[in-house]
Recover the amino acids of this structure.
C-alpha cells in the first residue's frame, strides 16, 4: 500500500500548470490540513496493509508552515503501519526551503526530497513562470544533503528550450548529493497561459523532433553520470529508484488523501472532489469555514497549540487498543475487521466523487501499459495472476516484435529493448 497526500497550495501559479493547486491564505491552509488529517484517520481504518511509501506532493508542500507537514506525518505514523525504512518523500520548491524547514521534515520521518527544478536557464524558468533561480536549485540540493537527506530528486522539464551546460549542472548537483532525476516532456495543457502564449506565437517551444533529440541527449548525459534509466522519464543512482512511483507502475494499491487525490484500493478506483471548499466541508465536518471569523481564531489556536490534533490522535489510539483486543480472538476479529473495513470504506466511498470497479480486462491493460514504461517490464507471473497468459494470447505479436529486436522475453519478464523506448506506444498498442 502506498499513501499519497496532496497539498494544493503554491506561492504562485506556474504558466504551464493545470494541477489542482492555487494560492490561498494561511487560514484556508490550516482548515484544509484539519480536514486532511481527518481523512487520513478515516482511511486508516479501512487500510490494513503495511505502507511501503508515503508521498507528500502538490502543489508545493514546502510553501506551507512545516508544522502542518509534521502533523500529517504524525497522523500517518500513528494510524498506518509505517516504519523507519518506509520511503517518505516531500516535494519542494528550491526557493521555499530553509534549514529550519528541512530539520522539521527530517525529524517528522521524511527521508526523501524532490525539488521542482525544471531548468537551469533563467529565461526558461521565466517562460515557465517559476519562482526560483538556477542558483537556488544548487543551494537547495546542498542544503537538503547537509540536513541529512541522502535521497534527493530534481524534476526537469524537456522540450521548452535546448538545455545548455546540462552535464556541468547535473555533475555539480551530483557532487552535492543528487541521487535521482525525473525528466518529463513539456505538455501544453489546455487553458494555461503558456499554451495561450505559444498559440499567439509569443513563445516558441521545441518541435517534437527537437524534443526527442533533447531527451536522447539528456539520457546519455544522465547515464554517463551514473543515473540509470529505470522508467522512460526516471533516472537514478543504483538503489535510489523511487519506490513510490515504482508501485504505481506495477499497479499496486494506493490511497490518495486530499483535494482531487485519486486512490486504487481493493480493486476500486475513486477520487476526491476538486473543489477546495467542498473538500474541507466533507472531511472537516463542515466546522472549518475560512470565511468565519470564529473559525479563523480556532485555526490559529490549532496551529499554535497542537492539542486538538493530539486529542484526535489519542482518541484513535484508543481505537487501536480496541482493535488489538480483537486481534487475540480470531473469529471475533474476522467479523470485527470486516465490519470496520466496510463502515470506513463506505464512508470513504460516500465522500468520493466517483467509484469505479475495475474489470479484469481493465486491470490487465493498465498493468501492461504501465509496466512496459519501466526497464523491468512486465512481470509474467503477476500478469498471469491477473488472468492473462500474454505468451499465448499475443503469440503472433510477440514473435513479430522479437524478430525486430524490439522486445526481450525472459522466463520471468517481457520488456521493451532500450533502443525501442522511443516508440513504446506502438509496442504497447500491439500487446494490449
Ligand atoms: S509549483 Fe507545481 S503545482 Fe504549483 S503551480 Fe507550479 S507546477 Fe503547478
Amino acid at each position: 500500500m502506498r499513501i499519497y497526500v496532496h497539498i494544493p497550495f503554491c506561492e504562485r501559479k506556474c504558466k504551464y500548470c493545470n494541477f489542482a493547486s492555487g494560492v490561498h491564505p494561511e487560514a484556508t491552509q490550516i482548515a484544509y490540513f484539519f480536514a486532511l488529517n481527518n481523512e487520513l484517520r478515516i482511511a486508516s481504518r479501512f487500510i490494513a496493509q503495511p505502507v511501503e511509501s508515503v508521498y507528500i506532493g502538490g502543489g508545493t508542500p514546502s510553501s506551507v508552515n512545516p508544522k502542518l507537514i509534521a502533523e500529517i506525518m504524525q497522523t500517518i505514523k500513528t494510524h498506518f503501519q509505517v516504519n523507519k525504512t518506509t520511503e517518505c518523500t516531500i516535494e519542494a520548491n528550491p526557493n521555499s526551503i530553509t534549514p529550519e524547514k528541512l530539520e522539521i521534515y527530517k525529524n517528522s520521518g521524511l527521508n526523501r526530497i524532490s525539488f521542482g527544478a525544471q531548468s537551469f536557464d533563467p529565461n526558461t524558468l521565466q517562460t515557465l513562470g517559476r519562482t526560483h533561480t538556477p542558483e537556488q536549485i544548487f543551494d537547495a540540493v546542498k542544503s537538503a544533503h547537509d540536513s541529512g537527506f541522502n535521497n534527493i530528486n530534481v524534476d526537469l522539464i524537456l522540450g521548452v528550450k535546448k538545455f545548455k551546460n546540462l552535464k556541468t549542472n547535473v555533475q555539480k548537483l551530483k557532487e552535492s548529493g543528487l541521487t535521482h532525476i525525473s525528466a518529463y516532456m513539456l505538455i501544453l495543457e489546455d487553458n494555461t497561459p503558456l499554451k495561450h502564449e505559444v498559440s499567439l506565437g509569443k513563445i516558441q517551444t521545441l518541435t517534437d523532433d527537437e524534443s526527442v533529440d533533447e531527451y536522447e541527449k539528456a539520457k546519455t548525459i544522465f547515464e554517463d553520470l551514473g543515473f540509470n534509466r529505470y522508467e522512460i522519464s526516471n533516472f537514478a543512482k543504483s538503489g535510489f529508484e523511487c519506490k513510490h512511483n515504482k508501485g504505481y507502475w506495477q499497479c499496486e494499491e494506493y490511497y490518495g488523501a486530499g483535494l482531487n487525490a485519486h486512490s486504487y484500493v481493493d480493486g476500486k478506483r475513486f477520487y476526491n472532489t476538486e473543489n477546495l471548499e467542498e473538500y474541507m466541508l466533507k472531511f472537516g465536518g463542515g466546522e472549518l469555514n475560512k470565511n468565519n471569523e470564529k473559525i479563523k481564531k480556532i485555526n490559529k489556536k490549532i496551529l499554535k497549540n497542537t492539542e486538538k490534533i493530539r486529542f484526535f490522535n489519542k482518541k484513535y489510539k484508543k481505537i487501536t487498543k480496541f482493535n488489538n483486543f480483537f486481534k487475540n480472538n480470531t473469529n471475533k476479529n474476522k467479523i470485527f475487521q470486516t465490519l470496520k473495513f466496510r463502515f470506513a470504506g463506505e464512508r470513504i466511498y460516500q465522500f468520493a466523487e466517483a467509484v469505479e470497479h475495475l474489470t479484469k480486462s481493465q486491470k490487465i491493460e493498465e498493468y501492461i501499459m504501465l509496466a512496459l514504461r519501466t526497464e523491468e517490464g512486465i512481470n509474467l507471473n503477476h500478469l498471469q495472476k491477473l488472468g492473462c497468459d500474454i505468451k499465448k494470447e499475443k503469440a503472433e505479436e510477440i514473435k513479430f516484435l522479437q524478430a525486430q529486436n524490439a522486445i526481450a522475453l525472459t522466463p520471468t519478464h517481457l520488456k521493451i529493448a532500450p533502443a525501442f523506448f522511443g516508440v513504446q506506444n506502438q509496442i504497447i498498442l500491439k500487446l494490449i
Q: What stands out?
A: The pocket of iron/sulfur cluster is lined by residues 10, 13-14, 17, 19, 21, 58-60, 93, 116 (CB under 6 Å). The first strand starts at residue 2 and ends at 7. The radius of gyration is 23 Å.
